[in-house]
Structures
1.
Amino acid sequence: MYKYIWLVPLLPLIGAAINGLLGRKLRFSETVIGGIAVGSVALSFLISVAAVVSYGLGGGHAHWPTPYLTSQDGFSFSWIPGGAISVNNGASYALLNIEWSYQLDPLSAIFMLIVTGVGLCIFIFATGYMHGETGFYRFFAYMGLFMFAMLVLVMGSNFLMMFVGWEGVGLCSYLLIGYYFDREEAANASRKAFITNRIGDFGFALAIFGIIATFGSAQYGDVFNLAKGYPIETLGHWGVMSWIALGLFIGACGKSAQLPLHVWLPDAMAGPTPVSALIHAATMVTAGLYMVTRTNVIFQHSQTMLLVVALVGTATAIFAAIIGITQNDIKKVLAYSTVSQLGFMFMACGVGAFAIAIFHVMTHAFFKALMFLGAGSVIHGMHHEQDMRRMGGLKKYMPYTYWTFFAGWLAICGIIPFSGFWSKDEILWKAASTTYVPLGWLVWLVGTIAATCTAFYMTRLMAMTFWGRERFLEKPETHDIHGGGHDHAAHVPHESPPSMWVPLVVLAVLATIGGFVGIGPAFQAVTGVEHPGGKLNIVNWLNPIIWNPETGEFNVPHEGEHGSVISHTAPVAESHGSSSWFNLAHAVEGVTHSHLLTEWLFIVISLVVAGIGIGFGVLFYVKNPSLPDIWAQRLRPLYQASYNKFWVDEFYGWAVTRRTMDAARAVFAFDSRLVDGIVNGLATLSRGLSRVVGAIDKYFVDGIVNTIAAFIKRLMSPLFRAAQTGFTQNYALMMVLGLMIAVVLFFARDIF
Amino acid sequence: MLNSFIPILALFQAAEGGRWAQTWQAASHPDLSKFLVIGALLFIIGVAGVLTRRNIIVIFMSIELILNAANLNFIAFSRYLTSIGNVNAVAGQIFAVFVIVVAAAEAAIGLGIVIALYRNKETIWVDEIDLLKW
Amino acid sequence: MTLSGYEALFFWIFALAAIFAGLLTVMARNAVHSALFLISSLVSVAALFVLAGAEFIAGVQILVYVGGVMVLFLFVIMLVNVGAEEKGNEEIFNNQRQVAASLIFCFLLVGGVLYAVNKGYSGLQKVNPPAETLAEQQAARDQSHAVSATKVSRITDDTQRVGASLYRYAALPFEIASVLLLVAIIGSVMLARTLKQESAADDLDPDEPKS
């Protein structure tokens, strides 16, 4: 079955093509469009499941874990055949050969399943949510196109295919954010998203050029096999690996909304809610993570870049968390939550825990998609009211939505045994105990604070939306934020139709139990092994693609069966001077003298801070609703900064947008005055010159010609006129005279 | 005896006996050259008539004189060529036939034009038909 | 070709008659007189043709030229000319300049003739055999013809020769001449039609206003 993975991207594309090209022309009904779209994604999902099962666990087991490329069975297309570019890099590599073939390996398998599985839930939700829209077919066409692009991204076997998918998802993001193209805010947001993405894409493209130039190929296998042998560039040393990693990370920042390119994600909430769920929570924004994890060989070769990744991720996490505390739009809160969680994932990558980052991607996809869809359900039920200040007490009106959202809330706060706990806790532990980069303790500390904030604002969201009194029944406030003049008192929220809450239930189940694939070594006492679940454990599953700096090779699967706990966090820097850095975990272990206890200590700390966050949230928004205003007044500068998103957009507007427009104006002035002035001056000069020449021609030349003509006329005209007598016999005389002369001339020789 | 009737001989009265005899011989045995001279004189008279007369009909008749003179030339040459044995001698007479044919046709057409002209302009004087002047 | 004896005499008589008649043609006041003089000139030239041995052509000349063309001339003179000169005070010659120029030209031509005669005479003498030889040859030729019924004159073969040539070697020009005559007939009929005749045949000139 795994031979048919090339169908997986193709089916959504076909569905999108049918919907897009024929949807309006043949006037498909919503059922048909939805059926085509959902059906294509469902088929893709089934094929993905079958492929992963058969290759990873079933019949193709013999070949696991070597990646399966479709080119092995002939399903590949020679995109840029060898001979087009020739690169000399000293190795025996011939010419660049780029093909279009799909790859099935641990990382792409996870992403395939996430994209198609969560995507399927969201598609089903969208058929209900987008009911009644005039552009129904257009929506599903774009969504199908997005699925295709995303699948190409994660299933591609070389960097160029990843780039194609990268651009494709960026395009679809633009199209889908701007789905309501007649709304100015949506149009602006889609443009902002695309342009910010593009800035990242620039870095990514440069990195790809660097990869091709350095390694002579764009295929993952070739590149990573070569990259293994390169020396590691320690902190402070900047080499080719660092350059490539920098370019890649800039791309990831753009796509995954890290500081400073995060500005597009909150604005992207102007698009329909399923779009926010699919693209801006579960899949597109995780493309950056996919890319960083895929190229973990390169990143691990550059210690500086790892530190940069960790710090940027951390900064993003706390930054977005602080902003999320004060937002009033339900989708904006979730958006900033997404940015913050993405920061966590990059934090994980930065400290060397790539598998855990992917684990967090997976669990985040579950609960964030769940919460976005839940928010969509709330918005739908509240008749498109998005301001949380006008919600409240929806618990009894929308039970399904409430209970599924509840599961998601617990997951994101990191409460055991929900999925979010397992991944977030592992991240913080790895941050504290990392030997890959210095400042692990700082990362841990800030991450913990961010987790607290996360718990706080998510509890705030729950309280304002589902608990408390029903504010929507009260009169609206004097200043209207959202809502177009409809009478709130008349609208009572209703539960969503089954097409909307069934996917919520599915995702809630996943959010609850999805974390069990990543039970960490701390629970070794319970589970008996370091990474329980054998191959299904996320760390074991992903080991083959993670490079081990200690051994200089990629990890062997099932590595966690034996060996000590510390062995897989093989310190690259032990031989590179990491002993001089402060390692928090080691410090605590020095106190407790037990590794297991240290781990459990950190687990407890993270649970406690989550509880603190929840407690504060309950206190502020359930028990004592006047507290938020009091504290907002007390911490006024911080509140203002948070509410205004730290004025990042304004700063960009001043520094970048307006300066660019000034430059444009200057260039335009230069062009219009100088260049056009020259051109116009030349034109005027030509005109003047032509006038001079014209005058010469008219007066001088024509004068001469006319004078000569008049002279000839005066001379000859009377003569010729006189010859026209009209008297035939004159003419006869002339004829005879001429004849005589002719005869004389003709016979001249004989006569004379 | 005939000599006195030929006025041109009076020009040669003053000549010597040899010349006189030669002239008489030439005159009494007219050959080709006499015919040609006669033809030439007729031609000249005709040309003078074409160029000087005012009456259209008379001009046409002068043209007939010219054609006649040409005919005389042809016939004279035909007789001459026969006498020296040229096989194509009869061509002169053939040509004369055609000249007569053409002259007849031309006279018919020309006189038709004259009649049409007379009907329109009521005049036969050539110098009154001068519209084609400046 | 030399004529001799009475032939020479008649040659001179008819030659002078032709020239005199031609001169009078050009100088006559009355157009009918001109026509009659022209007729006499043509008849004299026909006689000269006979003397030159072209009897057939002489006959054709009399029949066609005199009997056809000159009669036509007379018809036309009667049609157009009758009232014009009866008063007798019309100028018959053109203005003086034209006449002077024409006469000068004609005298030039006469001078040319005299010059040519002078020049060519001796040449012709050199080329031809002497007159007597030519006379004998002519006599021999004359004797060779068939004798007529009365046994006095001979039957010449000029017509036979002309006919043989005309219908064999000159057949094409002959046909063309017949077409020419056809065209002349049609043309002259068309040219000389009155308006009444044209409208009767429904063949008015479209550019002419109907009068």
2.
Amino acid sequence: MSLVACGNSDSSPDTASSGDTGTETGGEASGDQITLRMAWWGSQARHDGTVAVIELYESQNPNVDIQYEFFDFDGYFTKLNTLVASDSVWDVFQLGGNYPAYINNIHMLNEFIEDGTIDTSNTTQQFLDTTNADGDQVGISLGVNSYGIAYDPQMFADAGVEEPADNWTWGDFEAAAKQINAELGIFGSSIMDDFLAGASIGVGPDYNFFDADDQTKLGFDDPSLLVDYIRMRKELVDLGAFPDPGAAAEVTDIEGDFIVSGEAAMTWIATNQFPTLVDAAGRELKLASVPRRDHDDPFGLTLNSSQMFSIPTNSEHKEEAAKFINFFLNDEEANEILKGERGVPIMSTAREAIEASATDAMVEVLNYIDYVGSNANPELNNIENPNTAEITSQYELLLDQVIYDEITPEEAAQQIYEFAKNIIE
Amino acid sequence: MNKKKIKTFFYHAFLISFGFIMIYPVLWMITGSLRNNAEILSGNMSLIPENWRWENFANGWRGFGGVGFGTFFKNSFVITTVSTIGTVVSSACVAYAFSRIRFFGRNVLFVAMLLTMMLPGQVILIPQYIIYNQLGLVGTRIPLVLPHFFGQAFFIYQMMQFMVSIPRDLDESAYMDGCNKYTIFSKIIFPLLKPSIITTIIIQFYWKWDDFMGPLIYLNKPESYTVSIALKLFADAGSTTDYGAMFAMSTLSLIPVFLIFLFFNKYLIDGISTTGLKG
Amino acid sequence: MQFIENEEQEKKGFRWKMQQFLDKESVAGYVFSAPFIIGFLGFTLIPMAFSMYYSLTDYDMINAPTFVGMDNYTRLFTDARFLKSIRVTLVYVGISVPVKLIFALFIAYLLTRKVKGDTLYRSLFYVPSLIGGSIAVALVWKELFARLGLINALLNTIGLESINWFGAQDKAMIPLILSSAWQFGSAMIIFAAGLKEIPNTYYEAALIDGANKAQMFFKITLPLLSPIILFNLIMQTISAFMAFTQAFVITGGGPNDATNFYALYVYNHAFNFYNMGYASAMSWIMLLIIAFITFMILKFSKYWIFEEK
């Protein structure tokens, strides 16, 4: 049963399912020349991989010509915003957690899943939910990720600190950072995503920072919930256990992170970046979950979609775009090319394809994602509010001011609470 | 005699040391093109690469998704050269009008010209894009090149200031010889603007060469990308950055703009007839 | 014959009239400035009008703009970050522009005479401007001023302590100012061209009259160069107000907004926070400020500009 177009082994019995090659489903108007436009952001490795997959698809679907563009992150969004303003967004475009801002321009994919154009039989509802807003499937995730703390087990051992337990707390984190700093003279931890750690996740497992149902409201009303993280951050900087703003400015990307250079024992990481981090560090690193407030608090993380492909409302080739997305997600050869660089694939077939050649770091990520997936707290809101960027910027500014002794942690908490409340209304 | 020698010595010593300080960051970047990420980020400031990693050039040159730097360089060349020519010709015309001809509305236009330079590009980016989109010109090189044929405020103003030092007596005697405004421009003013034109060429060339906002917005096929966009594509905060390849290609990108400078700089140093106050 | 002569005269008449018409000041003025007028009306005025309109709206670029009147402008005056960014930008302009111009003029002047190696020297001083705006160099600059970077290493060798450049609010701007000053090359080239324009005869005459170098510089060079100085002053001032890339790549506006140049703040609001309306209003306020300062410079220029009669 060697399907000519597939070109790889038939180990998975799912290759007979519909839609993934485009040459065997009936009823489509083959021979109609269609041009799809698509774009994504990333860097050299991703560009090369994605283009290879595009060419693979074109070779299997000669009537489709895909015009693609690619940019770095900032360039991509500058261009996307320009295209949105002129109603001419690419037929297939990449979005991350900031999709709520673009929600009115996205054509929901529910119909394509229902009619089988996009085959979701190899994934779970949980994974689909990472890109589902109120029942609308805004896109299909190209890779899920979550957040964690990457740490160097050897440094922990050298400093006499126990490795993080599954349910470790911010208190444990603080103590570990201080002890590592005292014993080894380096930063306990490298930079964190402060807003996510201190506000979004840090506001506690019982609350969401942004209300899960109403985008114009906050999900909590006690600013003092934000104080502890801010206070901890300041203390750690004062002790030299955490980079001050000057040192933090030196870290522009993963390769420059302090854990890579050996100047820190921990760092915040998005899981899809973990393999890169380990590669750059050149030594064994492990993943621990993000700390919680108290040891018996429920788990504080969910799965997020790292990136997804969406179809814009202005597209004139929505069906063909959906077919391409389906190929991108499900085709095994495609996934072997992509190697899960965008995150852990949501299709089990794709995961199996990369597991075969996964590095230790990738295995760590896969295990971690499974762990998060099975423990995820369903009450948590993993949808980004359209005003997140502005609020994050203000939060980081206030954090700087606390560090420079211009305001107290309590004042900062109060101010960010007011600011966020006013902005989202 | 000795005093002069000492003076010359200090003159050169100063220029060499100051020059070296100036050029040091560039040299470091060039050296970086022969290093890998770890060596670059280690904070090592020496100018001698530890390992001569020539493969950075090969890695960088192959570009992205099958489009290599050969294509990017060609694209940049075409766009930059055409734009530069457009700027020189149109800006000279407009500068002549503003500085040598009194006509109704001249001051208003001059003020408008200055104002165009004071608004940051980002806020008119989107409206301009919409206009070009309506005209169906997005995806072509026209939006990048066309504005240069309508004068560039910076160079118009620069040429105006240079025209100040071309004596009006020349205009008057030319008039008496039977020239009109147009021939005065073509036969007298334009040739005497040489130093200004040369600086315009040098500066406009490298500004256009480095410009990436325009190409980013208006070009939509990787085969048509310019070097300026391509260099940015190496670095992405969310995934790996190949600094060595990026520095290698940045070094190569430096060569054309530098050669333009060298070529035209000759004219700035060699004697250019400064006033033409010949009979 | 008479008939033909008249015809020729008529033809000549028409052509001659046409030429006279074209040669009129007003007409020639418009003909020559036509490129600018067309370009301005077509490519600039309409977008400017758009952006003025946006400034009166709440516009996130994704949904249609909603009119809010002067709200954006009133909000600006209570926006602490905006006020700080104006202050920060003014400080940057006030320091970097003079520094840059002084270097540019000094080096251009040093290199006017034909000496051995002047092409080499010119190149050394010019190359930084060629790549100054690029990402690669911005990253290099970041490394230079890092805590373990070269600058601190040099400070240590002369016995001074390392400075946490990007961590100190009062010092974070210095690397950016130096980066700007470092790129004085294009101003230098313009000065060099201007210096070339000054006829040697003036200097020769002065020498005969017994003038020394300093006198020649102040009494001949500077005055004759004054239109160029004015030009560079205005251009560098305007472009310093627009400073963006360096702050964007090197400091990101920090620490604590100490280097939050207004162009960076505009960009953030326009493209990251989806507040295009607010960003537009900000740009127009800054345009007023820049225009005011520019026209002040122009107004006072008549006191020190020398125009050849």
